[in-house]
Amino acid sequence: DKDEDQHDEL
Amino acid sequence: MNLFRLAGDMTHLFSIIVLLLKIHATKSCSGISLKTQELYVIVFLTRYLDLFTRFVSLYNTVMKIVFIGTSFAIVWYMRYHKVVKQTYNKDEDTFKHYFLLLPCFVLALLLHNEFTTMDVLWTFSLYLEAVAILPQLVLLQQSRNIDNLTGNYVFFLGAYRGLYVLNWIYRYFLQDHRARWIPWISGLVQTALYADFFYYYILSWKKHEKLKLPA
Fold first, then answer.
1. Contact across the interface for A7 and B50, Cβ inside 8 Å
2. Where do runs of H (alpha helix) occur along B27-97?
């Protein structure tokens, strides 16, 4: 979902 | 994960290795801004709060630990190592970096994805990272001679976020078509701040001259 996807980079 | 992102992360890691190498090999941190390094510790701590709560991939987890560990090590060297700390010239490192924290935090309170602690701090870390290089760039403009390792460090540090911009373009047009305005704009501002450094760095490299930034 939104939050999961947002923080998948460094 | 795409090639641009991997290249970006490796360039970022390489910039930190170059810096650690410089400090460890020459036992000197001349030309390095402690303030920028301290800002990076804050950036990584506030960005990787989910280190233990959310598992994205082994790669992400390992890189987060490496970034936190190396940024702490660099600050430790510059503050407490008996030889290295003598070479830190605080009179040159004049930028009031604490003045960057509040505006970035207020902006994160106003402009974020979700109003949760994790997301506001993650957003704060993106805004802070965009401007964290300022003390270092100001120091470079004031310091007469920039040694090669320091110049290379700043170059690779600037290149990594530029590669991330390519990664975001790739992801948007070829993968998930998701607009990520906060990292995009922060990343563009961050890369733009290096524009004049890149110009003089490449110019000096072409003319095989010592890198000098106009004051």
1. yes
2. 34-47, 58-80
pLDDT of residue A2: 52
Name every chain B residue with its beta carbon within 8 A of the beta carbon of A7: 50, 54, 56, 118, 122
Nearest residue to B133 (alpha-carbon basis) of B192, B49, B50, B81:
B192
pLDDT of residue B125: 98
What span, in angstroms and rounded, lies between the C-alpha atoms of B161 and B163?
5
Q: Which of B5, B67, B113 sits opposite A6 (nearest CB)?
A: B113
Q: What is the pLDDT of residue A1?
A: 44
CA distance B106 to B20: 33
* Contact call for residues B122 and B56 (beta carbons, < 8 A): no
In which residue are the tokens 């008996």 written? B82
The answer on pLDDT for B49 being more than 80 is yes
Percentage above 90 pLDDT, chain B: 95
From CA B11, how far away is CA B155, in angstroms rounded? 10
- Answer yes or no: are the C-beta atoms of B39 and B135 closer than 8 Å: yes
Q: How far is CA B193 from the centre of its chain?
A: 11
* Residues whose CB is less than 8 angstroms from the CB of residue B197 and which lie 6 or more positions away in sequence, other chains included: B137, B140, B154, B155, B158, B213
Residue B207, token pair as written in the block: 């003319």
Of A3, A4, A6, the CB nearest to B180: A6
Q: Which residue of A has its CA nearest to B123?
A: A7
Residue of A nearest to B44 (CA): A10
